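Lab notebook: predicted structure, single chain.

Context: the supervisor wants predicted structures on file for every construct in the current expression panel, including those that have not yet been purified. This is the next one on the list. No modifications to the sequence; it matches the entry in the shared construct table.
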Amino acid sequence: MFGLELFHTALQQPWTGIYTKILALVLLYGATVHIGNMAGLTGMPWMSTPLLWRGLDITLLMFDIVSAIALWRGWAWSVLLVFSGIILLQFVPYTLLRSQFILKPEDAQVLNGLLGTEALLLGIFALLLWLRK
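Prediction complete. Output recorded below exactly as produced.
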């Protein structure tokens, strides 16, 4: 597949390779947050959170772990996984279903910060892939 070959080549470049390792660590941090949510360590008891939150915690935990391993290993398909996963599992729900994730006023700021961080991480990744650095 022509596209995956380009990703494979880009992932072999020094700066992109370093960045994918950093991104993998960020994703592992995200996985620990979801584990913390499930264990009730990050606020309210997990079973009292909305079903949508619990479903996303489980889904994002699996996504974060698989994506982190794939990026760390430098697998070309990890690029597609990371971009599609972040867009479909974070940008879509946190914008289209925004009201479902805001229980108190400060939750809006947290969502905005998360989306801004995700946009920055994807933007840097896209730039490195495009420049193949």
